[in-house]
Every structure is written in C-alpha cells, then in structure tokens.
Amino acid sequence: GAVVSQHPSRVICKSGTSVKIECRSLDFQATTMFWYRQFPKQSLMLMATSNEGSKATYEQGVEKDKFLINHASLTLSTLTVTSAHPEDSSFYICSVGAGGLDTQYFGPGTRLTVL
Amino acid sequence: AQSVAQPEDQVNVAEGNPLTVKCTYSVSGNPYLFWYVQYPNRGLQFLLKYITGDNLVKGSYGFEAEFNKSQTSFHLKKPSALVSDSALYFCAVSSPYDYKLSFGAGTTVTVRA
Hints:
heterodimer; A: about 0% helix; globular; B: 6-stranded mixed β-sheet; 4-stranded antiparallel β-sheet
C-alpha cells in the first residue's frame, strides 16, 4: 500500500495562533487525499476531501475558513488550523486514496494541543 | 447515508483463542468494506477489504473477514490471537460513488497472555 507521512507528529500552540500540518504521500502520486479528526477514544470523522489543483470539499459542519486545505502537488496536502482554540485540540489524520481510490492508506497522525 | 455499527466496545480473549470482532453496515448499493487497526497514538493500518468476489477475504497478520450480504455483516476473525493483536479495530464502509469512508466507533481488543 501507499506510504504516508505527517509532520509534525505533535504540536502545542497558544490559543489564537495558526498551525500547519503536512501530509505527504511518499511512494504514490495522490490526486486525492482525505483529512480526518479523531477525539480521544472516539472514531474518525471525515473533515474534507483534498483534490490536487482544486478546492477541497468539506463535510457538513466543518468550517472551511478555519481549516484551510491546500493540495498543491501530487505528494503534498496541508491542513492549516487558523486561529486555533482549545476545542480544536485533537488528533488529525490524513489518508491517501490509492488503488483506484477504493482503499485509503493513513498517515501516523498529528496530535494538536491548543493551550 | 451510510453507517457502520460495531456493537462491542471491548473484546477480551486469551492468547491462542479465536478472536472475532463484529461489524454490521448500512449503505445504498454495493458496499466497499474495510478493517483497519490502530495502535496508541498512531494512524490506521489497513488490514483487509471486500469489494467484490469471494465472500471470505484474507488480510494481513492472519486476519480474515466474511462478507454476509443477507445479514449486512463483515465480522473480523483470527483463528489464534496473539498478545500483539491488542489494539483498537475499526470497521469502515464506503460506496463506489464517492469513496468516502464512514467508520464504526471502534472495538478495543485485549489479548491476555
């Protein structure tokens, strides 16, 4: 399957600052990537679908101006959490749609803590 | 709308015993079904999938799952569990229309030595 990396693995920031999380597909050219959010001891919730060279598609209830997604190349998608608040603290995981998109391969996740 | 139910929050088994993690789904049309495993503070690892074909699917680390259309189930099984199988397991479903994954709540598996 595809190998996916995320950077950073952990980040702590102050309330009101912005944080950028990178998702890289290391061995596969990904036209589509997905961003998920996972709260402690809960399941993954899809936030948005990131499409290379075009605007991301956000799920209902996800603020697109708060969670900015850029998919500038076939190997990199970024998620920027703008004006972060403590309630944005979560585990953010990206995935790459590979094998005709029917299978997603996940990155190791980024733990965001907003103080 | 599509959804997945994992009725058990936790499954506890002794090492060497069979392991079963249950999953039922709801989706319009033919389902794409997946099992993923997550270790603490890590992303998800792909175990296996059912798209079409044989109802019994074999995956990584000795796991298998059986697609049952009449019962809308896709239970994960392993004949002989290992302590290292202790982790959080997610069942997920998508459709061929948009490939968006919907996850179950997850089942924590604990295998005791």
